[in-house]
Amino acid sequence: MTPAIDQARKAGVRFDILEYEHDASAESYGEEAAVKLGLSPDRVFKTLVVKLDSGALAVGIVAVTGKLNLKQMARAAGAKKAAMAEARDVERVTGYVLGGVSPLGQKKRLTTVVDASAQSLETLYVSAGRWKSPWRRMTC
To answer: Can you tell me the distance from the alpha carbon of 79 to that of 116, in angstroms, rounded to the nearest whole number?
Structure first.
C-alpha cells in the first residue's frame, strides 16, 4: 500500500483502487491514466507542487485537461507569486516520485488548493502515489 491509501483508509474515505501499467514513453501521466482506465479526463486530477514567494511549498490539484494558473494559485495560497517547485524538493517534501504525487499521505502537510471544477463531480480520480515499479495506482 502507499501512504495515500493508508491515509484514505484511516480517514474513512470510500475509494477504489484502479491500476494500469505505465508506458515510459507517455507524455502525460494523467492523460495516460484516463485513457488506460477508460475515464473522462475531466474527472482525472493531477497534483502539482509550487513554490510560493515566501519559500513555502503548496499543492494545486487540477484536471489533467487543465493547466495550473500560477497567479491564481499564489493568490489562493495567500502569496503574491508562485512557480513550479523543483523536482527534488517535491520528492523530498511529499515522499512521492514525480509523476506519481498524490494529494494524500504526503510526508509534510502543505497548503492545498483544489480547482473549482471538482465541486460539480460526484467522483474524481487522483494518484494514490507511485511505487518504484512500472505500476501506477489511482484512487476514486
So the answer is: 19
Output the pTM of the full model. 0.89
Residue 76 in contact with residue 87, Cβ under 8 Å?
no
User: Number of C-alpha atoms within 13 angstroms, CB side, residue 27?
Assistant: 0
SS3 118: helix
For the ranges 57-61, 124-128, 133-137, the lowest mean pLDDT is seen at 133-137
Q: How many residues does the chain have?
A: 140
Q: Which three cell numbers stand for residue 70?
A: 500560477
Element (DSSP H or E) covering residue 7:
helix 3-11
Which domains does the chain carry?
3-139 (3.90.960.10)
